[in-house]
Write a structure and sequence with these properties.
The chain has 205 residues and is mainly beta. The protein folds into 2 domains: 141 residues, Histone chaperone ASF1-like (Immunoglobulin-like); 44 residues, no CATH class. Helix content is 2%, strand content 48%. The protein has 1 helix and 12 strands, in the order E-E-E-E-E-E-E-E-H-E-E-E-E. The strands form 3 sheets. Strands 2, 4, 5, 7, 8, 9 and 10 form a 7-stranded antiparallel β-sheet that branches. A 3-stranded antiparallel β-sheet has the order 1-3-6, with no helix packed on it. It has a two-stranded antiparallel ribbon with strand order 11-12. A hairpin with a 5-residue loop joins strand 11 and strand 12. The radius of gyration is 24 Å and the shape is elongated.
Amino acid sequence: MALSLSLLDLCTPFQNVEFLNNPARFLDPYHFRVTFECIAALKEDLEWRLIYVASPGNAELDQELDDCLVGPVPVGVNAFEFEGSAPSPQSIPPEDVLGVAALILTGSYCDQEFVRVGYYQNTEYDNDEMKLAPPEKIQFDKLVRDISAKPRVTRFQIKWYVIVIIGIACWTDTPWQGRLITVRSSSSSRGGKVSSCSLSKRPRR
Protein backbone atom coordinates (compact mmCIF):
# COMPACT_ATOMS: atom_id res chain seq x y z
CA MET A 1 0.00 0.00 0.00
CA ALA A 2 1.54 3.31 -1.03
CA LEU A 3 0.62 6.93 -0.49
CA SER A 4 2.17 10.25 -1.40
CA LEU A 5 2.12 13.24 0.95
CA SER A 6 3.01 16.79 -0.09
CA LEU A 7 3.53 19.00 2.96
CA LEU A 8 5.59 22.21 2.97
CA ASP A 9 8.50 23.39 0.85
CA LEU A 10 10.92 23.10 3.77
CA CYS A 11 10.00 19.53 4.53
CA THR A 12 8.16 17.48 1.92
CA PRO A 13 8.26 13.77 2.74
CA PHE A 14 7.17 11.14 0.27
CA GLN A 15 5.69 8.37 2.37
CA ASN A 16 5.14 4.73 1.63
CA VAL A 17 3.23 2.65 4.17
CA GLU A 18 3.54 -1.10 3.71
CA PHE A 19 1.74 -3.57 5.95
CA LEU A 20 4.00 -6.57 6.37
CA ASN A 21 1.40 -8.96 7.81
CA ASN A 22 -1.86 -8.36 6.01
CA PRO A 23 -4.20 -10.22 6.17
CA ALA A 24 -3.55 -11.57 9.68
CA ARG A 25 -5.21 -12.99 12.77
CA PHE A 26 -7.21 -10.42 14.70
CA LEU A 27 -5.04 -10.83 17.81
CA ASP A 28 -1.74 -10.53 15.92
CA PRO A 29 0.22 -7.28 16.29
CA TYR A 30 0.21 -4.84 13.37
CA HIS A 31 3.56 -4.80 11.60
CA PHE A 32 4.26 -2.22 8.91
CA ARG A 33 7.04 -0.15 7.40
CA VAL A 34 6.97 3.62 6.77
CA THR A 35 9.35 5.14 4.22
CA PHE A 36 9.68 8.88 3.67
CA GLU A 37 12.03 11.45 2.21
CA CYS A 38 12.90 14.67 4.01
CA ILE A 39 14.47 17.61 2.14
CA ALA A 40 15.41 19.49 5.34
CA ALA A 41 16.82 18.03 8.54
CA LEU A 42 14.37 18.12 11.46
CA LYS A 43 15.59 19.18 14.90
CA GLU A 44 12.89 17.32 16.81
CA ASP A 45 11.59 13.77 16.59
CA LEU A 46 8.53 12.74 14.59
CA GLU A 47 5.82 11.04 16.63
CA TRP A 48 3.70 8.28 15.07
CA ARG A 49 0.55 6.86 16.67
CA LEU A 50 -1.64 3.90 15.70
CA ILE A 51 -5.31 4.10 16.71
CA TYR A 52 -8.12 1.54 16.42
CA VAL A 53 -11.64 2.90 15.99
CA ALA A 54 -14.27 0.27 16.68
CA SER A 55 -17.26 2.61 17.09
CA PRO A 56 -17.07 5.77 14.95
CA GLY A 57 -19.91 7.33 16.94
CA ASN A 58 -18.13 6.96 20.28
CA ALA A 59 -14.61 8.39 20.47
CA GLU A 60 -14.26 7.17 24.07
CA LEU A 61 -13.91 3.64 22.71
CA ASP A 62 -10.94 4.52 20.49
CA GLN A 63 -7.83 2.55 21.43
CA GLU A 64 -4.32 3.91 20.97
CA LEU A 65 -2.47 0.71 20.14
CA ASP A 66 1.05 2.10 20.19
CA ASP A 67 3.19 5.14 19.51
CA CYS A 68 6.83 5.76 18.69
CA LEU A 69 9.31 8.61 18.29
CA VAL A 70 11.49 8.66 15.16
CA GLY A 71 14.56 10.88 15.08
CA PRO A 72 16.73 12.68 14.61
CA VAL A 73 15.51 12.81 11.01
CA PRO A 74 18.28 13.63 8.50
CA VAL A 75 17.96 14.83 4.93
CA GLY A 76 17.27 12.00 2.50
CA VAL A 77 15.24 8.80 2.43
CA ASN A 78 14.38 7.36 5.85
CA ALA A 79 12.48 4.24 6.86
CA PHE A 80 11.36 2.57 10.05
CA GLU A 81 9.27 -0.44 11.02
CA PHE A 82 6.40 -0.05 13.46
CA GLU A 83 4.80 -2.87 15.46
CA GLY A 84 1.56 -2.03 17.22
CA SER A 85 -0.43 -4.20 19.60
CA ALA A 86 -3.76 -5.71 18.62
CA PRO A 87 -6.89 -4.05 20.03
CA SER A 88 -8.01 -5.11 23.50
CA PRO A 89 -11.05 -7.39 23.02
CA GLN A 90 -12.50 -6.29 26.37
CA SER A 91 -12.71 -2.68 25.13
CA ILE A 92 -14.75 -3.45 22.01
CA PRO A 93 -18.56 -3.74 22.23
CA PRO A 94 -19.55 -7.23 20.98
CA GLU A 95 -21.77 -5.73 18.28
CA ASP A 96 -18.78 -3.79 16.85
CA VAL A 97 -16.26 -6.64 16.60
CA LEU A 98 -17.36 -8.16 13.29
CA GLY A 99 -17.46 -6.16 10.08
CA VAL A 100 -15.77 -2.87 9.29
CA ALA A 101 -13.72 -0.79 11.73
CA ALA A 102 -11.12 1.94 11.17
CA LEU A 103 -7.36 1.94 11.68
CA ILE A 104 -5.66 5.35 11.84
CA LEU A 105 -1.97 6.21 11.61
CA THR A 106 -1.03 9.77 12.59
CA GLY A 107 2.24 11.66 12.24
CA SER A 108 3.08 14.67 14.43
CA TYR A 109 5.94 17.12 14.83
CA CYS A 110 6.27 19.14 18.05
CA ASP A 111 2.72 18.13 19.04
CA GLN A 112 1.39 19.30 15.65
CA GLU A 113 -0.35 16.63 13.61
CA PHE A 114 0.73 16.92 9.98
CA VAL A 115 -0.81 13.78 8.50
CA ARG A 116 -3.59 11.32 9.27
CA VAL A 117 -3.87 8.10 7.27
CA GLY A 118 -7.07 6.09 7.69
CA TYR A 119 -7.72 2.50 6.65
CA TYR A 120 -10.81 0.34 6.71
CA GLN A 121 -10.35 -2.98 8.47
CA ASN A 122 -12.74 -5.87 7.93
CA THR A 123 -12.98 -8.54 10.63
CA GLU A 124 -14.63 -11.92 10.14
CA TYR A 125 -14.36 -15.54 11.21
CA ASP A 126 -11.79 -17.74 9.52
CA ASN A 127 -14.27 -20.45 8.41
CA ASP A 128 -17.50 -20.45 6.41
CA GLU A 129 -19.53 -22.20 9.08
CA MET A 130 -18.94 -19.48 11.66
CA LYS A 131 -19.37 -16.75 9.06
CA LEU A 132 -22.87 -18.03 8.28
CA ALA A 133 -23.81 -18.70 11.91
CA PRO A 134 -21.67 -16.56 14.25
CA PRO A 135 -21.59 -17.85 17.84
CA GLU A 136 -23.29 -15.75 20.50
CA LYS A 137 -20.00 -15.20 22.31
CA ILE A 138 -17.22 -13.78 20.17
CA GLN A 139 -14.33 -16.21 19.69
CA PHE A 140 -11.42 -13.86 19.09
CA ASP A 141 -8.96 -16.66 18.38
CA LYS A 142 -11.03 -17.55 15.31
CA LEU A 143 -11.10 -14.04 13.84
CA VAL A 144 -9.04 -12.70 10.95
CA ARG A 145 -8.59 -9.12 9.77
CA ASP A 146 -7.99 -7.62 6.34
CA ILE A 147 -6.89 -4.00 5.89
CA SER A 148 -8.02 -2.10 2.80
CA ALA A 149 -5.44 -1.22 0.15
CA LYS A 150 -6.72 2.34 -0.37
CA PRO A 151 -6.11 4.65 2.60
CA ARG A 152 -7.74 8.02 3.13
CA VAL A 153 -5.07 10.68 3.65
CA THR A 154 -5.66 14.00 5.41
CA ARG A 155 -2.88 16.58 5.45
CA PHE A 156 -2.43 19.49 7.86
CA GLN A 157 -0.15 22.49 7.42
CA ILE A 158 2.05 23.02 10.46
CA LYS A 159 4.98 25.21 11.49
CA TRP A 160 8.12 23.18 10.89
CA TYR A 161 10.57 26.00 11.67
CA VAL A 162 10.43 29.22 13.72
CA ILE A 163 12.33 32.37 12.77
CA VAL A 164 12.18 35.37 15.09
CA ILE A 165 13.65 38.75 14.13
CA ILE A 166 13.77 41.41 16.83
CA GLY A 167 14.74 45.10 16.76
CA ILE A 168 16.11 45.54 13.25
CA ALA A 169 16.08 49.02 11.68
CA CYS A 170 17.87 50.10 8.51
CA TRP A 171 17.98 53.85 7.90
CA THR A 172 19.10 55.07 4.49
CA ASP A 173 18.98 58.23 2.39
CA THR A 174 16.68 56.67 -0.15
CA PRO A 175 13.05 57.86 -0.54
CA TRP A 176 12.01 54.82 1.49
CA GLN A 177 13.46 55.17 4.98
CA GLY A 178 13.58 52.17 7.26
CA ARG A 179 11.82 48.84 7.40
CA LEU A 180 9.14 47.79 9.80
CA ILE A 181 9.24 44.16 10.87
CA THR A 182 6.03 42.86 12.33
CA VAL A 183 6.18 39.67 14.40
CA ARG A 184 2.93 37.81 14.86
CA SER A 185 2.79 35.22 17.62
CA SER A 186 0.27 32.50 18.29
CA SER A 187 0.12 29.84 20.99
CA SER A 188 1.29 26.38 20.01
CA SER A 189 -0.09 23.16 21.42
CA ARG A 190 2.95 22.96 23.70
CA GLY A 191 1.89 26.19 25.39
CA GLY A 192 4.85 28.12 24.01
CA LYS A 193 5.01 30.64 21.22
CA VAL A 194 5.53 30.28 17.51
CA SER A 195 6.18 33.31 15.35
CA SER A 196 6.12 34.33 11.73
CA CYS A 197 7.37 37.65 10.41
CA SER A 198 6.40 39.91 7.56
CA LEU A 199 8.38 42.78 6.10
CA SER A 200 6.96 46.15 5.08
CA LYS A 201 8.32 49.62 4.30
CA ARG A 202 7.37 53.10 5.40
CA PRO A 203 7.95 56.33 3.43
CA ARG A 204 10.58 58.80 4.53
CA ARG A 205 9.21 61.94 6.17
